[in-house]
Write a structure and sequence with these properties.
Blueprint: E1 7-11, E2 16-21, H1 32-47, E3 53-58, H2 69-76, H3 80-98, E4 104-108, E5 111-113, H4 115-122, E6 125-129, E7 133-135, H5 149-156, H6 158-167, E8 171-172, H7 173-179, E9 184-186, H8 191-203, H9 207-221, H10 225-239, H11 242-252
Parallel strand pairs: 2-3, 3-4, 4-6, 5-7, 6-9
Antiparallel strand pairs: 1-2, 7-8
Helix pairs in contact: 1-3, 2-11, 3-10, 4-5, 5-6
């Protein structure tokens, strides 16, 4: 089994793999190492014929609080080509998760902000705590939820995605279920029981048929590389823009960005 610094991957006798985000001291926030390790772990899962179901979840208090502050600070200093490479790495992670041949299920508790919400949307199925907190917070700091947007729009629908991408307002697990982002909610202490029930259903199904069904759904959806490349360039460009730089600096310095100076 591959060893990771920011993740844990286990596989049980039934073929259920659990991939844990494992930076609890950082609320499982993304950095370059976690993104790279997630892509590596997903490739390992893809190639393991024993695995029939992948569950993605987080250690500690939160599923994932989004981007790591130190990583964001480093990103603020990157030029456009470096930002593009950064965006491509995150996009590769999202597309690897979305295109895994076996079913994927996100189990969410605590916070799932920014790119973490993208991971949830990129999974086939999602269960969450009723009091989980979700937010597409990027525009608040001068950025956009670019590479995760195709998955978020598919999961929530365009109309609701417009609201939460443009307002950056947080919402609960119960609201996430109303929007279609989550398929079911439960109290935090009941999540494992719900997971066991869902896994029980999925593991009774033909592995070959499940993989063929995912191929069918991918063919129907038909999203191609053009959209992916657009989103990668969109986030890279706005990160190096004047307001993108101001937003990141303000966030890291714990002050208001200039566009909020005259708002309540």
């Amino acid at each position: 089994m591959t060893s990771f610094h920011t993740l844990e991957l286990s596989i049980d006798a039934q073929g259920l793999a659990t991939l844990w985000l494992n930076r609890p001291d950082k609320h499982n926030a993304f950095d370059a190492q976690m993104i790279a390790e997630l892509s590596q772990a997903l490739e390992h899962v893809r190639c393991d014929p024993r695995i029939r179901l992948l569950v993605l979840r987080g250690r500690g208090r939160h599923f994932s609080a989004g981007a790591d502050l130190a990583w964001m600070q480093a990103s603020a200093a990157l030029d456009l080509p470096a930002n593009l490479a950064d965006a491509q790495a995150l996009a590769e992670l999202m597309y690897r998760l979305h295109t895994l041949p076996m079913p994927t299920l996100a189990l969410v508790h605590g916070a799932a902000y920014g790119g973490a919400l993208g991971l949830v949307a990129a999974c086939d199925l999602a269960i969450g705590a009723q009091d989980a907190r979700f937010c597409l917070s990027e525009v608040r700091i001068g950025l956009i939820p670019a590479v995760i947007s195709p998955f978020v729009v598919k999961a929530m629908g365009e109309r609701q995605a417009r609201r939460y991408m443009l307002t950056a307002e947080p919402f609960t697990g119960e609201r996430a279920a109303e929007l279609g982002l989550l398929h079911e909610t439960a109290p935090y202490d009941g999540l494992d029981a719900v997971l066991a029930r869902w896994a029980g259903h999925l593991l009774q199904n033909s592995p070959q048929a499940l993989r063929a069904c995912k191929q069918l759904l991918a063919a129907i959806a038909g999203a191609g590389d053009e959209l992916r490349h657009y989103t990668e360039h969109a986030i890279a460009a706005i990160r190096v823009s004047e307001e993108g730089q101001e937003g990141l600096r303000a966030f890291l310095e714990k002050r208001r960005p200039h566009w909020q100076e005259h708002t309540a």
